[in-house]
Amino acid sequence: MSVDLQTVKRVAHLARIAVSEEDAERMTGELNAILGFVEQLNEVDVSGVEPMTSVTPMDMKKRSDVVTDGGKAADIVVNAPATEENFFLVPKVVE
Amino acid sequence: MSDLTQLTISQARAKLRGKEITATEITEAYLGAIERANPALNAYVAVTGDKARDMAKASDARLVKGEGGALEGIPLGIKDLFGTEGVHTQACSHVLDGFKPRYESTVTSNLWADGAVMLGKLNMDEFAMGSSNETSYYGPVINPWRRSRLDTAVMPTTHQGDGGFVSAGGTRTVRSLDNAQLVPGGSSGGSATAVSAFLCAGATATDTGGSIRQPAAFTGTVGIKPTYGRCSRWGIVAFASSLDQAGPIARDVRDAAILLQSMASVDPKDTTSVDRPVPDYEAAIGKPIKGMKVGIPREYRVDGMPEEIEALWQKGIAWLKDAGAEIVDISLPHTKYALPAYYIVAPAEASSNLARYDGVRYGLRVPGKDIVDMYEKTRAAGFGREVKRRIMIGTYVLSAGYYDAYYLQAQKVRNLIKRDFETVFAAGVDVILTPATPSAAFGVADEDMAADPVKMYLNDIFTVTVNMAGLPGIAVPAGLDAKGLPLGLQLIGRPFDEETLFQTAAVIEQAAGTFQPEKWW
Known about the structure:
The structure holds two protein chains of two kinds. Chain A is mostly helical. Chain A contains three helices and two strands.
């Protein structure tokens, strides 16, 4: 499979990365080189093979349903580019 | 002691405990070395001198009282991927500009609890994506090793010195260093350079596809990627969560064991942290390997592999055989599919993990006409080329209609790769010996690699299988190539059998010796 310029622009939008016409053209070539490289996986017979879901066989650890953390609003917003009264500020989303 | 930076961790530990030196003295020695070397090597992106001095002072107070921890007063460098409270933590990306977390990663917390001293944050490939440390927002790290040439010079008088040696006929063989700058490998290039150039006693690093072992091999240092789940991932900037593991880079095998001992833990904050006590890794060093079964996988003999790598591998086999190990030929038939499967799984996980960098909660924000425009502009300006490339691949392989063909297929192949290893371990193989990398360190701005991303990816061909199967792997220096550059061997072990890796690596180290670059910086 290979990608064309339109697909690259669509994927860039899905990934929320602005691309110029020039970027998109360069990326098309690079992405096709990588997709060409991974193509060889199709020759592997995977019939009856489960996809890996856990690197190490283990049960999901669970903890008791109690509050263990919190009350750190100021710590959480401290690295944000724009905040007001412990809220993150973003451009207007709803008209 | 003239230069305290030359001490290994085990040597420094003994001198600190014996009150022959102080933590403050050794910390000052490293801070001085960093100040002199960093303009040339670019290993550190942030030096935390004041913090280091405070920590060293506290260590000295504890050492005086005889209350020192396992790493009391040992100055370490920390890869920029580890969250360090109140200190520069940016994964060497522009998108995390100014980020100083309000928390400390579990691995670094463990090190500080044992008394280690933080010298600063180490350069790396952006978000740990790269094999040359050239994708860092802070510029490439330079390998302290340089190629050298042997020339024969006629000497008027016969004397010995300057690293040259005298031959019978009055001529002298002189090794001269080439000026070309080489990469230290990646992504933990800052860690490897800092350890190799004596800018820290040891360093933390992380390995998703080879990012500890490949730079260790390129710099003549020891690097171990432990079993997935051995070190907590909590507080480490995520790249590919099912592959990422933290581990140390050190000057010798013993130091690597000492560091991993402290870094590894059982952590309730990471659900993939495995509930298993941390054994005494250092105790494994020096144990005989007589009767140990060492597997030699035929699939690691790849086309175009330099003869020197093959010769090094044979040398490693001979050393282990001499030490009483039994050498067996093994087959890991899905080896060649590990790298292509990795280039689906890792970008897929990365595209998801890196979705959080949106200009809202931390780091860089580039204003836009609406929120989507702000996201797109922020991410376009904040991520470098390699990171964008991988996010794009990941987004594509996970997008509607392609998930089964790419991601699901890759995860199935991944199970086959894991099964290959399980089969040989079940047949009684204790450890697997392979080359660590397909070549020695290459030049900065290598044109071939810049032109084709896949060429760069091939650096991880021997290391990536280990991440895919979640196994432990160690890179240990085994010799120099004809140009005087270090080459490493890799040992792969059973899950959670890091002890056998240290035990076997120590045998290789004893046969090969340790390697130091000639100082030019």
